[in-house]
Amino acid sequence: MSDSLPPSEGLAVVVGVDGSRAALNAVRWAAAEAVDRDLPLRIVHVVASGGAPDDGAADAALLAAQDAAVMSTERVRAQRVQIIGRPEDILLQESRHAAMVCIGARPRRAADEPVVGRVATALARASACPVAVIRSRTDGTAHTDGVISVVLSDDVGNDDVVHLAMHEGRLRGRVVRQIDRRADSWVRRYPDVHVETVAAGSGHQFGWETDGHGDVGLAVVGTADADALPTLTMPNCHPILGYPNCSLLLVRQ
User: Fold this and answer.
1) Beta strand 98-105 with 12-17: parallel, antiparallel or unpaired?
2) Do residues 61 and 24 lie in contact, with contact meaning Cβ atoms separated by under 8 Å?
3) CA 133 to chain centre
4) 188: phi > 0 → left, psi -120 to 50 → alpha, else beta; which?
5) CA-to-CA distance for 225 and 216, rounded, in angstroms?
6) Whole-angstrom distance, CA of residue 25 vs CA of residue 142
7) What is the pLDDT along the chain (253 residues), one digit of tens a residue?
8) Which of 93, 155, 188, 200 sits 20 to 30 Å CA-CA off 14?
9) What is the residue extent of each domain of the chain?
């Protein structure tokens, strides 16, 4: 199996912006993705239909997003787009011609608050490409540091999920934590045995130590988790600790 992602000719990395700090965090994250894939970064600001558009606010949001993208990586090729409609509808349309769609998410402030908002819910249910939901902390910083966590399972398409998690680990310079939930894995047959994974011939050992940062910064999950996300309640027993309060990368099959 190739360690490269599938070719993405004619596509873009799409990021939805609304002028918020959370959206700018998503822009910075998406800019690195676009440069790595050699794709343009398509910055989309949606104006509600039927209302009086505030062109000044829209222009300011788009310019701030472009500045954030360029400041994070000068090699980014940014495109600014303003579209009339509902954000969830527009971004679902954009997903049909995107390698990835990225949006920002503010921190959850109450236990009974939905785990994701309306736009993320729509994308989780029906996006035609992977969706990155970049969570912000209460201080405005992006909740993306720490390990990248992914579940090894028997689900259809799990190889694609793990492939993207490994790609993100390489791109972001992060440790990838693989949680083995396969029904017939040796780890599950011997739950009392501590296992450390070593890539043969690489000279690298991958364990649970992550330079003091054991928290999950990004959870990469597949179709089943994406389908369940809009109705997920807290607390939950997901194998990825801290899910879904970290940033999310949803990979639909």
Assistant:
1) parallel
2) no
3) 5
4) alpha
5) 16
6) 6
7) 567 776 666 699 999 999 999 999 999 999 999 999 999 999 999 988 765 556 778 889 999 999 999 999 999 999 999 999 999 999 999 999 999 999 999 988 887 788 899 999 999 999 999 999 999 999 999 999 999 999 999 999 999 999 999 999 999 999 999 988 898 888 888 888 877 666 555 444 444 444 444 689 999 999 999 999 988 887 788 888 889 989 999 998 7
8) 155
9) 12-135, 147-247
Architecture in CATH for domain 12-135: 3-Layer(aba) Sandwich (3.40)
The verdict on pTM exceeding 0.90 is: no
| Residue 201, token pair as written in the block | 């011939």
